[in-house]
Every structure is written in C-alpha cells, then in structure tokens.
Amino acid sequence: MVTSDANLKTVAGYLGDASYADGQKLVAALATVKPVVYQLNDSIAEKGADKARFHVGYLAQDIEAAITKAGLDPARFGMWTKTALFTVTENKDGTLKQTATVDTSGNQQYIQMLRYEEIFPAVLAGVSSSLSALTDRVAALEAKSAGSAA
User: Fold this and answer.
1) pLDDT tops 70 at residue 1
2) 110: closest CA among 81, 84, 86, 88?
3) Angle CA(116)–CA(117)–CA(118) in degrees, nearest 5?
4) Are 126 and 33 in contact (CB under 8 A)?
5) How many angstroms separate the CA atoms of 136 and 150, rounded?
6) 142's torsion region: left (phi>0), alpha (psi -120 to 50) or beta?
7) From its phi and psi, is residue 109 left (phi > 0), alpha (psi between -120 and 50) or beta?
8) pTM above 0.90, yes or no
9) Cα–Cα distances in Å, from 71 out to 15, 18, 24, 78, 132?
10) N-terminal to C-terminal alpha carbon distance within the chain
11) Vertex 13: Cα angle to 7 and 18 (nearest 5)
C-alpha cells in the first residue's frame, strides 16, 4: 500500500538534505539517467514498428545501474522492482503448476519495473536543488556586477 498519510510513515530523511546522505546519493544517481523514447516489443510484433505507439520513460535496468553505482541497494527503494517470471500450467487433475521461466542456459528470468510516482519526487528534488543553486549564482553575479558599476 502506498499512502501519503504522515501517521503511517517513519521519515528516514529528506531528499536533498545534507543530513540524509542516501537521499543525496539517490538524487544524484537519478540525475544521471536519461529518459528514452521507446516502443513496446509486443506492440511492434502485433502492429508493426510503423503503427506501434511511442512511449517516454526510463529503463529499469538504467535506474538499477545508477542506484548501484551510487553505492546504494536498488532493492531498498520502492521505485525499482525485480520479479521472477513464472509460467502457470494446468495439470490433468485441474491443479495448477508454477514453473520458473528460464533462458536457454537454465537461468531464472526476471522482469524489472519502475514506480514512477516514487521516481518523480527524487528527480524533482534534483531539479529544485539545481534551480536554487543557479538562482543563488545569478543573484551573486548580479550583486557583483551592481557593485562594480557603482
């Protein structure tokens, strides 16, 4: 369950706050990830590349790599998930059998997914911090310029 009610949360820190180092690392990590324009492979197979719609977003593997590179564990953040894939078949007696989906080498296959509602606050914190820093720099330059003109 995702909720916004403060009574149901224990705040670990504030993004961009110097006292919450992991928050700073997360914001910096996400700033390195470039959004992509993509088409879904299933849609291309069904409709053809010329008719499949384009989407805009992030690749889960890029988010995972950026968070990992920052020295954080992506599995500790709800914005990124990795789930094992399984195939469910029905047995002759009507019971269901779940079998791991594996590649040609027998390795378990996974799907990665993102929760954009959790990514956006971190990205916005980075944009807000950058904008604040730029505003401060402009103000300092304007003050310096005004002082030189006097």
Assistant:
1) no
2) 84
3) 85
4) no
5) 21
6) alpha
7) beta
8) no
9) 16, 17, 12, 16, 26
10) 60
11) 155
Over range 88-93, report the average pLDDT. 94
DSSP one-letter string for 12-79: ---TT-TT-HHHHHHHHHHHTPPPEEE--HHHHHHH-TTTSPPEEE--HHHHHHHHHHTT--GGGSTT
Report pLDDT digits (tens) over 131-150. Answer: 888 999 999 999 988 887 76
β-pair partners for 135: none
Q: What is the pLDDT, as a whole number, of residue 15? A: 87
Give the pLDDT of residue 150.
64
Out of 27-31, 112-116, 127-131, pick the least confident.
Answer: 127-131
- The Cα 17–Cα 100 span in angstroms is 43
The bridge status of strand 86-90 relative to strand 80-84 is unpaired
Which contiguous run of DSSP H or E holds residue 127? Answer: helix 116-149
Picking from 17, 54, 50, the residue whose alpha carbon sits closest to that of residue 39 is 54
DSSP secondary structure string for all residues of 79-111: TEEEEE-EEEEE-TTS-EEEEE-B-TTSPBPEE
Residue 130: helix, strand or coil by DSSP? helix
| Averaged pLDDT for residues 71-98 | 95
